[in-house]
Amino acid sequence: MTGTKPAAPSSALSGTGYTILAAAGFGAVSTLTALATREGVSLFTVLAWRYVLGAIIMVTWVRVRGAPRMPGREALKFIAVGGGGQALLVGMALSSTRWIGVATLAFLFYTYPAWVTLVQTVRGAERLTAPRLLALALSFSGTALMVGTPAGDHLPWQGVALAIGAAMVYGVYIPVMRGMQKDYWVTVTSAYGKIGSAICFLMLAVATRSFTGSFSGTAWAAIVGLTVWSTVLPSVFFMMGLMRLGPVRTAIVSTVEPFLTALLGAVVLSQGLPGKTMLGGLLIASAVVVLHVARSRQAEPG
Q1: Which domain, by its residues, includes 255?
Q2: Is residue 1 assigned to a domain?
Q3: Which letter does DSSP use for residue 3 in this model?
Q4: Which three-class secondary structure state does DSSP give residue 267?
Q5: What letters, b where the CB count within 10 A reaches 16 and e where it falls short, cover 242-269?
Q6: How many CA atoms lie within 13 A of 277 on its CB side?
Q7: Considering its fold, how many domains does the chain have in total?
Q8: Within a domain: residue 240?
Q9: Using one digit for the tens of pLDDT, what is the confidence trace for 108-129?
Q10: For 261, phi and psi rounded to 5 degrees?
């Protein structure tokens, strides 16, 4: 692919809406995971149940809806690349917290829009325009304001390498998934992706001898919420947004996630919502507006 056709304004607007809905779901991951692990459930067990239940829900939904069957070879690609890729970046990101704090991880991981932009520019798939550069700068500044910067801190190289590595994997993962999607149903490809991730995390949970189903009702409630709201729904919404916006715009719009995470934490965990978080969210919202206005002008006749 040598270029992308500008989407109609309505398509771009709906794509932005889907991406923000996906970010809202993904933004709840840390809060719901914290609620489950506070009940004594190991992280790998939480992740294993998250994706096992997610795979069951998605496969059931696909069967009920009578979705067209995907060729076996293509299905294996989505299991290996879609599911394995997601498990890899999640595993790398979480592993980095052994050496660095969560805020530092967030700052480093949310460089992924820059990696997506770089990949797409090198491939010649999307042009590096002035509005996109401005939106990228606004979203990065907003993220830095919300989570803080690690400037002046002595950071262990292992944690930094894993966090940036996760961002780089995601930067490649998004364009690859966009290219693989083709004309398949989003629910079908998402189902295969969940199967792949479930296999990976189930193996890790069993290998560490932490896999169990015996835990409190609170933990189960958190895992079910994590499965439905932060796994099944956002994965579908994300792909629907990605197909309408393209990799670069989707990545930039997705940086609204830290703000939504902070907002959820303020509501559910009674955490404060500092002024810098509000300002950071405003900067990211400005990036979304810049992208939408630029796309609308592209789509105008002449």
Answers
A1: 9-299
A2: no
A3: -
A4: helix
A5: bbbbbbbbbbbbbbbbbbbbbbbbeeee
A6: 16
A7: 1
A8: yes
A9: 788 888 888 888 888 887 777 8
A10: -65, -45
Q: CA nearest 30: which of 10, 13, 50, 14? A: 50
pLDDT tens digits, one per residue of 14-54: 888 999 899 888 878 877 888 888 899 998 999 999 999 99
User: Given this model, what pLDDT does residue 218 score?
Assistant: 92
φ, ψ for residue 244, nearest 5 deg: -95, -30
Q: What would you report as the CA-atom Rg of the chain, rounded to the nearest whole angstrom?
A: 19
Give the residue carrying structure tokens 């949970």: 205
Domain assignment present for residue 85? The answer is yes
The amino acid occupying position 131 is P
Which two three-digit tokens encode residue 274?
Answer: 């500092």
Cβ neighbors of 136 (< 8 A, separation 6 or more) are 113, 114, 117, 252, 287
Assigned domain for 129 exists: yes
Q: Which two tokens stand for residue 36?
A: 């489950």
How many residues appear in the chain?
302
3-class DSSP assignment, residue 47: helix
